[in-house]
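#lab-general

N.A. 3:47 PM
ok so I finally got the sequence cleaned up, no stray characters, all 413 residues accounted for. can someone with queue access submit it? mine expired

B.Y. 3:52 PM
send it over

N.A. 3:53 PM
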Amino acid sequence: MRTYSITKALNLPEYKITEILSEAKEEIHIRVEPYKRNPFVCSNCGNIHKGPARGIIEVMVEDRRMIDKRVYLYVAKRRQACPTDGRIHVESVAWVKPRARVTTRLAREVYRLTAITTNVEAGWYLGLDDEKVYRIDREMLEELFAQRLIPPPAAVNISVDEVSYLKYHRYLTNVIDTDIKKVVWNGQGRKAEVLDKYYEGIGKENCEKIESVALDGARTYISSTSQYAVKALIVCDKFHVIQKLNMAVDTVRRQELRKARVAEQDDVVEMMNCRQRFILLKNKANLTEKQAEHLKRLCEINEPIYKAMLLKDSFQEVYMQGNEEAARVCLKAWIQQALSSGLEIFKAIAESFRDKMQFILNWFRKKISSAVSEGFNNKIKRLKRMAYGYRDVEYFLLKIHQHCGLLNPRFLH
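B.Y. 4:20 PM
back already:
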């Protein structure tokens, strides 16, 4: 009766328990056999082979815990020669994960756990070593990737952005479907050839269906998108445009801070040090009374910072215009103002904005944003920190899909 109950609890398709080999406080060892011998399915090629078996071996595989005990199953597998390579292979059992010595149920549990915690913590919880968790998780992700992401899912509105994954300017390119807010493709690098792979993957017909692409203004992404998504509206994202201005203001602050330190102007140094930088980057409307007074004093005693803040604030008027033509006039006036400011960093930005003027103004045609990309970038950086970095870049790309894309177990049915 007990053996029958455990058979029902395990629910192994076409297999039954024949013997409980041993049972301890923390684990149980069970021998299982099939009800009947099915055709031999080769674990090498996946085809059915006929002919006599070349012997039987017993393989131990681990299953999910049962009544708080680790479960080890001893499964008899036939051996037979495979015509494809002439070598002898064991048969494939549907509920046993090939090469992993675990059941598919346990493999799914590993995959679900690694979606919410690190491989080390998942291994500790399940009693598996880190290397085994890595192999199981990677194999599961590769299988799901082949099922769901080859070819890449086509999208109508996308956002393209890069994220650093390693020191010395090593980047990944991520493509996000802004309608479903999921990563649908990623690749190593940030050159035009990298993004080309996504467009080539979805095909010419789907490329022509893309309506809008939000970018950070990178020339490589613009070049690739212009070549493939010929009907798409390319939009330089407002978030990144404002971010460039904030970075320019901070560059001016650092330059003036160095000058003040050389001149031993301690009061100016105190007002411009890194603890005060957020005041320069903050929106004027969000400043407290004390912060506004601090900014006013700083602008009074330092002309370059005054000019930088003036240019940063005046640019906001571009996005306050009611239509594209009014914004064009405002943007042209701002570019002339920046070119005559005497600030090299703002001159460079003005020239860049002049080259990409139409892409900036396309925001008035479709207010698509790549802010979702920045949110995912933060999640990706958190994922990297949790694991203390990834040596295997291909695995890291799969983990991004698991945490931020269509391979997340929450969205699999």
